[in-house]
TrEMBL record:
Residues recorded with modification N6-acetyllysine: K610
GO biological process per UniProt: acetyl-CoA biosynthetic process from acetate
Keyword Signal part of the UniProt annotation: no
Residue span(s) of domain Acetyl-coenzyme A synthetase N-terminal: 34-84
Protein name: Acetyl-coenzyme A synthetase
Record-annotated AMP-dependent synthetase/ligase domain positions: 88-471
Record GO cellular component, one term: cytosol
EC number: 6.2.1.1
Organism: Thermanaerosceptrum fracticalcis
Cofactor: Mg(2+)
């Protein structure tokens, strides 16, 4: 089973790449003192960043901190949609392209800021017409099409928090998220295009909401024209209702601390957490970091390949770039359809200048070979970004050489759904980079690496990644569960936010993130909770007990490996393995489908009954095992090893 190679890391702490002078002399940030001044007075730094937004009423106080509960820009009033659209309409930017959309089949749409404003206000009126009020959560389950941005901004306009659910999640995962958010309105599409095929989406909604009594309306965007069942009264076509609704809609005056959105993310228990972000601090964080880390210029064409269903899509496809008046590119399809140079074709065609993607994609491009990008004109590119997981130095070098052609700075950006915006990354005009390290915390951000007792590690030491002071775009709580917010993030180390990541700090203070130290698996840059997959597995009638771990995987970073014990009388067979994999994919989504399922007579447990996941990871990765003296029954291991070899 385990013939995938571990990603090899050769870290070179000495290898520094300095920004090219042709870049640094034109960079938005050229003065290295920004780090020091933000260190001395971080509230003042963030105040300056917030002032670049449009506020209906200024704040009374920058920060109110009752650890771990923060309020930023207290009593300030603003609207995120106004900041992303209306304020760009006054000058020439109104006719600037806000969205360039490239569909899977090669269809293209260009939306100017004015166009976008018109459609967003129209859809805001649709929502109001459905009785959606300020504070009502709307669930959005859409593919990567302009309507995803339009409906998100329409929600923001009327103060209705959105909960965007990734289109790759299954009906079951969608149902859990709709129920938790108690949404009355769902926005979806008939289907989406993937490698030339129409994939149905609306049918997942039908299945999900058969168990969601709160849902009253489903708005359906027509994208593929696959056949859908429309329930009279409840279901309406987007294009039909838009045709009947006028544009122009006053935006709601929002408090800085009013909720902008909820985004569910995997936790260490089976139940996904609704991460809550508010308006003023979040928008300040994403607009500021988008401008500074990507060195945004007025004429850039900016492409972030993340799906709107993840935090990267929220912060760096929608809110950050649009708040800054950028031209964003949105692509619906897959990187290898119709050819393995689809991304490079798009960059060539639209003269993309900033490109932001994930290491898992870069490793895939590496595997396909450099001839694909070589055949395309990538001379428009001037900056590259990476996000989602540690970038291994080989991938960094490949990206730098074959996509950036050695000219473009590469910004490796560390952050999380919870942090809302980038926390650790270079400022490309002034920060020398080391391939594989996300470098230093951004100005105004207090990230550190600490030991077991919360003491900073010495240079060269490894430990836990924490954040020591509040920051504007921090999550405010876990939706409907403040205790979980406290327990998950603020209890491990007194007075510090615990990220769940392990990291090393080198002698220059540079941070090298190692990955999760909790039970979260990072598959292709996406978070899957071990517990979520385990609970899906034990729902299956054949399974008695399950333990799920992430093992190192050459392309995906990590892959899901499940160990199961079976109920009395059930016999292990290949068909059962397939059945279990399908069951997980159906219950959660294709991303969570285990790479392999290993049948165990028994799971290795400590004497206190805890499953030893670390040991299972060692087994799955073919490592010599460490200490098994705490095991209740060491013979379990030899049985498992035999099984693994047999597979
Ligand atoms: C933005 C995003 C967060 C987790 C995070 C960490 C990993 C993200 C990284 C990185 C190393 C980077 N991660 N960026 N690890 N270097 N540049 O991905 O949010 O989906 O919440 O995942 O991803 O483990 O804790 P999210």
């Amino acid at each position: 089973m385990n013939n995938a190679k571990t990603i090899s890391h050769y870290e070179d702490e000495e290898q520094l790449f300095f920004p090219d002078s042709s870049f640094s002399t034109r960079a938005n940030i050229q003065n290295t003192q920004i780090y020091d001044s933000a260190w001395v007075d971080y509230k003042n730094y963030w105040m300056g960043e917030a002032q670049k937004l449009h506020w209906f009423k200024p704040w009374d106080k920058v920060l109110e901190w009752h650890s771990p509960f923060a309020q930023w820009f207290v009593n300030g009033k603003l609207n995120a949609c106004y900041n992303c659209l209306d304020r760009h309409l006054e000058g020439w930017r109104r006719n600037k392209a806000a969205i360039i959309f490239e569909g899977e089949l090669g269809d293209r749409q260009v939306w100017t800021y004015q166009d976008l404003h018109r459609e967003v206000t129209r859809f805001a009126n649709v929502l109001r017409g459905m009785g959606v009020n300020k504070g009502d959560t709307v669930t959005i389950y859409l593919p990567m099409i302009p309507e995803a941005v339009i409906t998100m901004l329409a929600c923001a306009r009327i103060g209705a928090p959105h909960s965007v659910v990734f289109g790759g999640f299954s009906a079951g995962a969608l149902r859990d998220r709709i129920s938790d958010a108690e949404s009355r309105v769902i926005i979806t599409a008939d289907g989406c295009w993937r490698r030339g095929k129409a994939i149905p989406l609306k049918s997942n909604v039908d299945e999900a909401i058969s168990q969601c009594p709160t849902v009253e309306k489903v708005v359906v965007v027509q994208r593929t024209r696959v056949e859908v069942k429309m329930e009279p009264v409840r279901d309406v076509w987007y294009h039909e209702i838009m045709r009947k609704t006028p544009a122009g809609c006053q935006c709601e005056i929002m408090d800085a601390e009013d909720v902008l959105f909820i985004l569910y993310t995997s936790g260490t228990t089976g139940k996904p957490k609704g991460i809550v972000h508010t308006t003023g601090g979040y928008l300040t964080g994403v607009a500021s970091t988008h401008r500074n880390v990507f060195d945004l210029k007025e004429d850039d064409v900016y492409w972030c390949t993340a799906d709107i269903g993840w935090i990267t899509g929220h912060s760096y496809v929608v809110y950050g770039p649009l708040a800054n008046g950028a031209t964003i590119l949105i692509f619906e399809g897959a990187p290898d359809y119709p050819g393995k140079d689809r991304f490079w074709e798009i960059i060539e065609k639209y003269r993309v200048s900033i490109f932001y993607t994930a290491p898992t994609a870069i490793r895939m491009f590496m595997k396909w070979g450099e001839s694909w990008p070589q055949g395309r004109d990538l001379s428009s590119l001037r900056l590259l970004g990476s996000v989602g997981e540690p970038i291994n130095p080989e991938a960094w070098h490949w990206y730098h050489k074959n996509i950036g052609r050695g000219r473009c700075p590469v910004v490796d950006t560390w952050w999380q759904t919870e942090t809302g915006s980038i926390m650790v990354a270079p400022l490309p005009g002034i920060t020398p980079v080391k391939p594989g390290s996300c470098t230093k915390p951004l100005p105004g951000v207090f990230v550190d690496v600490v030991d077991e007792n919360g003491k900073p590690v010495v240079p060269g030491g490894s430990g836990y990644l924490v954040i020591k002071r509040p920051w504007p775009s921090m999550l405010r709580t876990v939706y409907k569960d403040p205790q979980r917010y406290i327990d998950t993030y603020w209890s491990r180390f007194a007075g510090m936010y615990f990220t769940g990541d392990g990291a090393k700090k080198d002698k220059h203070g540079y941070i090298w993130v190692r990955g999760r130290v909790d039970d979260i698996i990072n598959v292709s840059g996406h978070r899957i909770g071990s517990a979520e997959v385990e609970s899906a597995l034990v729902e299956h009638p054949a399974v008695a007990e399950a333990a799920v771990i992430g093992r190192s995987h050459e392309l995906k970073g990590q892959a899901v490996t499940a160990f199961v014990t079976l109920r009395e009388g059930v016999i292990w067979a290949t068909e059962l393995e397939d059945d279990l994999k399908n069951h997980v994919a159906k219950r959660i989504g294709g991303l969570a489908r285990p790479e392999e399922i290993i049948y165990a007579g028994e799971l290795p447990k400590t004497r206190s009954g805890k499953i030893m996941r670390r040991l299972l990871r060692d087994i799955a990765e073919g490592r010599v095992m460490g200490d098994i003296s705490t095991l209740a029954d060491p013979s379990v291991i030899s049985q498992l090893l035999e099984r693994k070899i047999a597979i």
